[in-house]
Amino acid sequence: MISGTLGGIGRPVLQAIAAVGRVALFAASILGHLLRPPFYLRELGVSLLQIGWYSLPVVGLTAIFTGGALALQIYAGGSRFNAESVVPSIVAIGMTRELGPVLGGLMVAARVASSIAAEIGTMKVTEQIDALVTLSTNPLKYLAVPRVVAATLAMPVLVATGDAIGIMGGWLVGITRLDFNSAAYLKNTVDFLEAWDVGSGLVKGAVFGFIVALMGCYHGMNSARGAQGVGAATKSAVVSASVLILAANYVLTEVFFSS
Predict the structure, then answer these.
(1) 3-state DSSP: the chain helix, strand, coil percent, rounded to 5?
(2) How far out from the chain centre does Cα 20 lie?
(3) How far apart are alpha carbons 113 and 119 in whole angstroms?
(4) Is the backbone peptide bond immediately before 12 cis, with ω within 30 degrees of 0?
(5) pLDDT digits (tens, 9 = 90+) for 126-150
(6) Is 88 a member of any domain?
(7) How many domains does the chain fold into?
């Protein structure tokens, strides 16, 4: 009975460790191909457009409503201590350091990781990846590397845009609902916001973009055959990317906090 219980506990742990190892080897393979020719610039450009430009509306809408709700919540809490004036600075710091990168990363994970996994998984099911190998084209180099590079480059831009829109959302709520003076609100935002507040969020964005594309490519490349396999790969890509984003966010926040 004891050995059976231990086996039931140890088996999932070993499977999880093996999965982490496979993802790490996959990531190392992508990094190893970054500087090796050939370079598929057309695929990179298409991926930048699909990941960056087409994700802008959902990131912008998420940011503006988050900034507005954050302003209302901070005002409600600050009014209990006669500290309503902290609303502009806390909205700006909260958006740039935490909410902008995390929510942007999660929204991009929902949109991009699922799309990448479904696309590559379908290519595997329909044997298009085998055709690439037949044509002496490395599937990892042709499919995964451009998407990972594009997501890593596009996410900081999306985060910066989301930060600006989120701060604007807080400003709109502040001057229309909370009776803040527009000039005073903007002055408090500028006075308390530091360059590293924005910079740390951009670093997080680059890491989150790498995670999103990595998980989409990994689960797409390892998709099982059939429609159910593609569906399972899509679901796994979104879930794993979202969990890794939250875990990486804590690790990066801890590093930035201690530095």
Answers:
(1) 90, 0, 10
(2) 19
(3) 10
(4) no
(5) 888 888 888 888 889 999 999 999 9
(6) yes
(7) 1
Q: Distance between CA 206 and CA 200 in Å, rounded? A: 10
Given pLDDT bands bounded at 50, 70 and 90, which one contains residue 14?
A: confident
What local confidence, expressed as pLDDT, does residue 259 receive? Answer: 60
Residues 6 or more apart whose CB falls under 8 angstroms from that of 51 comprise 108, 112, 147, 150, 151, 154, 209, 213
User: What end-to-end distance do the CA atoms of the chain give, in Å?
Assistant: 49
3-state SS class at 194: coil
> The domain containing residue 184 runs over which residues?
41-257
* pLDDT tens by residue, 38-58: 888 899 999 999 999 999 999
Q: How many CA atoms lie within 13 A of 253 on its CB side?
A: 13
Q: How far apart are CA 53 and CA 154, in angstroms?
A: 8
- Does 17 fall in a domain? no
Confirm whether 19 is domain-assigned. no
Asked if residue 58 is part of any domain, the answer here is yes
Amino acid at 16: A
